[in-house]
Design a protein that fits this description.
The structure is a homodimer.
Chain A lengths: L3 H15 L4 E7 L5 E7 L9 E7 L3 H8 L2 E8 L4 E12 L2 H7 L17 E15 L7 E3 L1
Antiparallel strand pairs in A: 1-2, 1-4, 3-6, 4-5, 5-6, 6-7
Bound molecules: flavin mononucleotide (FMN).
């Protein structure tokens, strides 16, 4: 059994692993069942309850896919360090202005030139169900957090 | 309309983009619909008809997932160059010894210490249905190959 303290420590470990990785690859499933990935800027953070936050255009193709199928994967890769992380999660669009203010980072301006004044801006909340990570060349089998 | 020559050129472009990326993240869907990724060594190659080959253990969890759901995604990331590639494809296990001999690379020994003498070794053939790539910081919208 995983006690809550174990899980806290594991999420802490995950946070360290992704801390300096700028973008994750978000994989979503479309209505035909095919899988697409796209890069999404992270703020290198995962909350203590296992949530990743992204900014997204509410009317984008990706957002529509997620409304139809909430199961997603976010992978983080740091090839130099042979670090590979898979976060399986459930995604949800959130249009909470306060939360946006809290999560906003200036470097997101590249993707959202109008910043929080962008009318179509939304948050994508990914709640981790399970994570696997491979850290360093020697790790054939992943470490798993669930 | 995409003519076959266009497609040839696009696949050539894709080949250049992934040539020096050692591993891709393979995302598969399990029976509950949740999405998992894991790193897979590539030989940096995609054939002219859009096929990626990987080596896999035939009895692995991943292989079973693929037997149940053939839709997969392989993403390639080179953070230094801001290069992000998504290949949506259909996967299939192939146990053809000649093909294995053709695809084998010595560096795969890390994952398959017995090499081609490993009884459980199999090939995973991913046939590209669609690819998207982002090459360089400025590209918000991907280039698409289908
Ligand atoms: C490094 C990088 C980071 C990105 N970060 C984001 C992001 O945080 N939010 C976002 O909506 N799009 C981001 N994009 C663009 C998306 O990957 C995607 O191309 C865009 O959202 C269009 O998606 P759509 O095809 O679903 O409409 C980023 C692209 C790159 C290359």
């Amino acid at each position: 059994m995983t006690t809550s303290t174990d899980r806290d420590q594991q999420i802490q470990k995950l946070r360290e692993l992704i801390a300096d990785i700028d973008s994750g690859m978000l994989t979503t499933v479309d209505d035909n069942g095919s899988l697409h990935s796209c890069p999404m800027s992270t703020n290198g953070q995962i909350t203590s309850d296992g949530v990743l936050w992204f900014f997204i255009y509410g009317s984008s193709h990706k957002a529509t896919e997620i409304e139809h199928n909430q199961q997603v994967n976010v992978s983080f890769v740091s090839p130099d360090r042979q670090r590979y992380i898979s976060v399986s999660g459930t995604a949800q669009l959130v249009k909470d202005r306060n939360k946006m203010q809290e999560q906003w980072k200036p470097q997101l301006q590249t993707w959202f030139p109008k910043g929080l004044d962008e009318p179509d801006i939304a948050l994508l909340k990914v709640t981790m169900d399970k994570a696997d990570y491979w850290d360093g060349q020697s790790s054939f089998k992943p470490q798993t957090i669930s």
